[in-house]
């Protein structure tokens, strides 16, 4: 097959980010380009697809993607493009593919848009009976008064990915602390803030592949804190960026938990995957509350595939696979769904 890769690189937006910083008196957060990929990731995907005998073309993202897709005759788009500029940005590439009649990997535009908005995703899964922490969407700092859940609470941008805006201080224990954190997020990210009950139990991420009733769990990884008590642990950007992350967390595959507990976590994740209409592959984050009951946190239908350090790549490696087989599995699920040879 002739496969085109849709992607967005950090380098594509660095000049735009620099202009934004120049236009502001205050500091902008240093994670504004966190969800975008490096050339290393695109090259790794390209090598994996080429090793299977496919012809591979880089299509890029945004306007460049559309222009390339109109120019190139590809059989399939392998999509890792995050998009830019709105809460529907992860839907841009699959929507363009849908409009032009070109098949693509990963979820469709509706699922991509719904899952990026964390409150929308929670409402959908809750309607299907999937438990999730109580939450409030705060659009103005004054709206913090509407938050009546008991502390601790957790505050994060409503529609960002790759742990943008999630720091150690995202867990708050006092009304003044909540007001300060919400105000900073509203200012820095220019979007509403999700405030939810903070789950103090074990944290898991679940890899799922497949479509419809054929969807199944790849494996489950427990993120175990090593330096702080579990009830205080935040799987933050500081942890993920730390080159010595093994000093802070242990990635347990399989989890060091009773099988019955892991099965409950996996059932929550699989039910959420199906309720949201995910396709091909996704990663579902689940965390247990103080009573040990698992709760849906969020869904990543476009999970990062950076070699070696993305959660999905780590999980796949701990299960005995390698990077090429992970990319191949995503491709195989899409081809089976689309009935492509």
What are the secondary-structure elements, in order, as H or E? EHHEHEHHHEEEHEEEHEHEEHH
Structure annotation, total helices: 11
The counted number of beta strands is 12
Task: Provide the residue-averaged pLDDT.
Answer: 94
SSE-based structural type? alpha+beta
Question: According to CATH, what is the topology of the largest domain?
Answer: D-amino Acid Aminotransferase, Chain A, domain 1
* Order of the strands making up the biggest sheet: 10-9-8-11-12
The CATH homologous superfamily of the largest domain is termed ATP-grasp fold, B domain
The fraction of residues assigned to DSSP E strands is 15-25%
Shape: globular
How many domains? The number is 3
Report the radius of gyration as a whole number of Å: 20 Å
Low-confidence parts, pLDDT < 50 over ≥5 residues?
none
Q: Do you know the CATH architecture of the largest domain? A: 2-Layer Sandwich
CATH class call of the largest domain: Alpha Beta
User: Percent of residues in helical segments?
Assistant: 25-40%
Give the termini separation.
Answer: 8 Å
Major beta sheet, specifics?
A: 5 strands, antiparallel
């Amino acid at each position: 097959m002739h496969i085109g890769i849709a992607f967005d690189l950090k380098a594509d937006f660095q000049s735009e980010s620099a202009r934004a910083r120049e236009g502001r008196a205050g500091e902008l957060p240093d994670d504004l380009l966190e969800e975008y990929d490096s050339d290393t990731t695109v090259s790794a995907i390209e090598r994996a697809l080429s090793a299977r005998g496919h012809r591979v073309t880089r299509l890029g993202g945004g306007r460049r993607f559309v222009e390339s897709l109109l120019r190139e005759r590809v059989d399939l788009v392998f999509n890792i493009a995050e998009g830019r500029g709105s809460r529907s940005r992860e839907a841009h590439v699959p929507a363009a593919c849908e409009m032009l009649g070109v098949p693509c990997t990963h979820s469709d535009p509706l699922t991509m848009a719904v899952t990026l908005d964390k409150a929308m995703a929670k409402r959908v899964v809750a309607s299907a009976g999937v438990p999730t922490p109580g939450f409030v969407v705060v659009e103005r700092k004054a709206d913090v008064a509407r938050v009546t859940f008991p502390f601790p609470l957790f505050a994060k941008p409503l529609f960002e990915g790759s742990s943008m805006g999630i720091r150690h201080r995202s867990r708050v224990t006092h009304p003044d602390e909540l007001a300060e954190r919400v105000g900073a997020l509203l200012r820095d990210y220019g979007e509403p803030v999700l405030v939810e009950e903070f789950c103090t139990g074990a944290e898991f991420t679940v890899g799922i592949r497949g479509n419809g009733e054929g969807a199944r769990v790849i494996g489950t990884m427990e993120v175990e804190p090593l330096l702080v008590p579990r009830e205080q642990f935040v799987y933050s950007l500081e942890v993920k960026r730390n080159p010595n992350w093994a000093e802070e967390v242990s990635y347990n595959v399989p989890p060091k938990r009773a099988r019955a507990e892991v099965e409950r976590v996996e059932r929550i994740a699989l039910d959420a995957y199906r309720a949201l209409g995910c396709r091909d592959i996704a990663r579902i984050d689940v965390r247990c509350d103080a009573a040990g009951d698992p709760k849906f946190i969020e869904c990543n239908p476009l999970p990062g595939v950076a070699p070696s350090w993305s959660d999905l790549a780590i999980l796949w490696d701990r299960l005995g696979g390698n990077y090429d087989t992970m990319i191949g599995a995503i491709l195989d699920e899409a081809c089976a769904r689309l009935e492509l040879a």
